[in-house]
Amino acid sequence: MKNLATFIITSSTCSFNLQPEWEYRWSEPAGLPHPNQVLAALPELPKQVGFLLDEDLLLPQKVDRDPQVQNRDLAGWLLWKTKKFLPFPADQARQQAVLLGENWLTFTLPKPWVQSLCQNLEQKGIHCGLIGGVFDQLSRESHLWNQALILLFQDFWIFAELGSKGEWQQFRLRRLPLEPNGDLDIQTLVQIDGTQAAQSLTEGKSTQLLILDRQWDHHADQLAQAFQRGFPTLSAPTLSGTRAQRLIQIRLGAS
After folding, report:
1. Which domains are seen in the chain, by residue range?
2. What does the pLDDT look like over 4-29, one tens digit per residue?
3. What is the pLDDT of residue 254?
4. How many CA atoms lie within 13 A of 233 on its CB side?
5. H or E element that contains 171
6. What is the pLDDT of residues 147-185, one digit of tens each?
7. CB neighbours (10 Å) of residue 191?
8. pTM for the full predicted model
9. Which residues have C-beta within 8 Å of that of residue 44, sequence separation ≥ 6?
10. What is the DSSP letter of 177?
11. 5-9 and 48-53 strand pairing
């Protein structure tokens, strides 16, 4: 993301790291946007671009490691283990996996979506150099290593723990609990989901609370205070603007 023109895709918005103040909102937000909807939203494009998607759009699934599975068989085995969770046929899956402690964590997109996006870009003379996840890119920032991260975005939140070399030690994606009026249910989030996360945290490891979408900014202070009971070393850097602006601020070490 540092050197590549990158679009950040959520279920409701699109933003761009080279014009971080620019943001496009989908007319009908509903999961993974259609490639034509993405392309119609993009401003003037450079010759190579990348796309980062929220991890909920990538359908993450944890798979227990099986020492009997050989590396040459791993991709097919992971797809076989996760195919029942996919909302499309397994033969249409584009799947990637990362090590999660002693296990695997898979991320999957529909191959026709990827192919349609890339082919349409190629017709415009543009190469697609990256399609990945937002957290995956954040995990490559060395100043976030050896920490736990709480990320709030859209309708979901992530609790993750990174090792001293950026290895993934924990990763949990959960839907945010909401009040009947659609506002965030902070009590349920912190006292139930947050307590479970805190109990699994490596002792002494620091934690950052990162709010990636402006819709939860008005809860920032309350969230930080509530989470601090379970995460005494928690810090909550102030982030603002579009998703692209916030990711840039995180990369630069916002405080």
Report:
1. 1-138 (3.30.420.380), 142-237 (3.30.420.40)
2. 899 999 988 999 998 999 999 887 76
3. 67
4. 11
5. strand 168-175
6. 999 999 988 999 999 999 999 999 999 999 999 998 999
7. 14
8. 0.91
9. none
10. P
11. parallel
